[in-house]
Amino acid sequence: MVHDARSWPIGAATLNFSGDLGEGRSLTDGPPEAWRPVLREVALAGFEHVDLTDSWVRPGDLTTEGRSELVRIAGDLGLAFSAISVTRKSIITPDPEQARANFDYDLRTIDAAAQMGVGVVCLGLHDPLLPAQREALWFWLADGAEDPDDEVTWARAVEGFARLGDYARQYDIRISLEMYEGTYLGTSASSVKLAQDIGRPNVGLCPDIGNIVRLHRPVEDWRDMISAMAPYTNYWQAKNYLRDFDPATGAYFSAPVSLESGFIDYRAAVGIVLDAGFDGPFCVEHYGGDGLSVSATNREYLRRVLAAKLGE
User: Fold this and answer.
1) Would you give the distance in Å from CA 29 to the centre of its chain?
2) Residue 167 CB neighbour total at 10 angstroms
3) pLDDT computed for residue 73 by the predictor
4) Which residue segment(s) compose the domain that 21 sits in?
5) Whether the Cβ atoms of residue 229 and residue 191 lie closer than 8 Å to each other
């Protein structure tokens, strides 16, 4: 893929919008026209691309006709889907039946991406939020489920993602694995090793280092994380946080902010991944407040950085 700063796909995440119609009804099962209001808001915020986060609508669970309608409605508004992101459906979750269901869902999501003309499917190993996480002010302030230090489970992850990569390759679709704490994708070294063990050219990494710097505990330096993962990066969910630590009390602090205002220097980080050959889509995310408007600010910031780095 060859992009310039203006044409580079930068998608708005739909994680800011609810997938619940109320009374136990899911937006996925609702009438197609119910999808239009959110996509209209995304378009009015100046976006041309959407990261279809499946917490909003699950394309893997739509009918063939439903997927076509979703593409049509987006197209009516001048939008295209740059990626589909699958959330909290680990293929190695401890319940074997649920793990199989999650794997099958990933296959259906790849089928959906192929039908909808979407070139990237982002997967992860993080499980649904635990009760303590749902009750916390920010879910990352409470501990979530963790992958076991176990060679057999690691091998299951490698085998499963390799199979998904092979399935996606027939459609020329990239699989990107999202960095997330407590999983085999929770550190840069483990993420790189997982990608290497999978060994598929279309399976790479999504270095969502914002997921790590927001944690209230010691973490890797963001420069080390992005430098290690850059050669394997094929898609990038970008968000930023304030981060502080008081050695006198041992207290940590973090809070969501725009890309240009936070702890991670995205001007430097973008340069690192570009130098490593990155050419995939961006997704801009933000938790709290008007996440869509902050994401729009992030989009324009990224375009300015790309123009500078690409010499435009």
Assistant:
1) 23
2) 16
3) 98
4) 10-309
5) yes
